[in-house]
Fold each of these.
Amino acid sequence: MLVVRDLVAGYGAAPVLHAVDLTVPAGTIAAVVGANGAGKTTLLRTLSGMLRPSAGRILLDGEDLGGTPVEQLVRRGMAHVPEGRGVIGELTVDENLRLGGLWRRDRADAGRALDEVYQLFEPLARRRRHHGHQLSGGERQMLALGRALIGRPRLLLLDEPSLGLAPRVVARTMALLRQLRDDTGLTVLLVEQNVRSALGIADQGVVMSLGRVVTTRPAAELRDDADLRHAYLGF
Ligand code: ATP
């Protein structure tokens, strides 16, 4: 379970996140939605250790992660797929995937995880030796996700996975996240502009505005209740 309390973070003197509170139960998907500039990306960057919070607490399964270096966060089960995905164009699919397991001491399990990723993403298996820059947007998204999964994370932080993808590919990505949640108990914090798709697979919807969480609701309620949608999502 991920618990965030009173988190304050930003880029300079002025904070972007003002006392963010959030609870994501283990084995569930939370979709973080809200207008541009609400602080969604900043929240993910702070959780993954890229930004240092100036106040507040981050607990993963009861363990306080405050001040933990990024590498340690990864070892403790956190994986972040940033906006833009971070695929390295000059490396092959196989090399990109292996990067995701370099830090692992259990080499045998890293190898098993690699095989599992190839089973899960069959197009990647076919393009093992292709370079990152030769892939389509959907394939790059698979690669970024696959690389994160090789670390067998407990918590996956995903920033705009649907960006630039065709609707059919978005649907496939969302279905895969649901499958990972159901089959492996993965906990997912998903930031999405594509609110409908995200709320379609999420257990809870977390609405952010101006650096704060303004409401947290069951995702289906936010998706289906027109009054709530108008009030919080503006459509
Ligand atoms: P978007 O969907 O547009 O990315 P968001 O909800 O993810 O929106 P953030 O990207 O977290 O929002 O941005 C929140 C605020 O932080 C904005 O006012 C933005 O201008 C500011 N900000 C974002 N990145 C930086 C940065 N690297 N340096 C300074 N300010 C930043």
Amino acid sequence: SRAPDHQVRLSARIVPYGNRQFLLTVRDVTRIHRLESMRRDFVANVSHELRTPLTVINGYLETLVDDDTLDPAIHTTLKSMEFQAERMRRIIDDLLTLSHLETREDPKAEQTPVPVPALVGGIEEEAHMLVGEKGQTVTVEADPDLWLRGARTELHSAFSNLVTNAIRYTPDGGQITIRWFQDEAGAHFQVEDTGIGIPPQHIPRLTERFYRVESDRSRSRGGTGLGLAIVKHVLQRHGGKLRIESDPDQGSIFTCDFPSTRLLRRPSD
Ligand code: ADP
């Protein structure tokens, strides 16, 4: 109470000896919170500042690549510059998305009814386009009447990241199944693939920023290393959790668990 601007963390525990004794610790976390907030602002500002010059570079590159009169060697160089600039744009966009998720004032504030089946339908279309010639099969099993209270854009971004990953890490001809269902524990959005899988020691760290099982493989497949960090934050803001089960060489199941308090039956027209 003597330092009203300070943030403290209280914790109490029973001391293992003696009668009716307990230990109360008070830790001043003001500095940690300030540093954390500086880090967040810094990342958000840098990402924002980098976006404009990159858009200009991308614009010029696009124009140059379209020029048929160029020497083929120069054309190839420009193509790879365009590819790298596009990768950089995706990383910056993901960093900005993460910063927005971290800085929103009230994490539980968004309570808009979200028609998840329609959302899943849109993601299924995107998935078919992404699969293209690669020949993975995408199937959807979704409860048509199950809605959720939340933020539509955030949920779209989380679900679509999981589906994109499933496609990215599943060889040609594999199977990807998207499910949206309810049980006694709540509602679940699930993506199952028959892909390369993840060795168990990596699973606990997958939602860390830029953590990858194999950096080169992820980069060459267009990953930014930020997708699962975004998924984790979106779920936290919706009172949900991400569950990951995987067998190397067999495939993976990523499940977003939402509490039943977030559920809605489709409002009747
Ligand atoms: P990235 O953009 O690299 O895919 P993510 O944060 O989305 O980054 O995922 C982190 C890492 O988790 C990936 O680099 C990859 O190694 C692993 N991963 C994610 N999804 C899958 C999946 N469906 N199958 C196998 N590995 C996966």
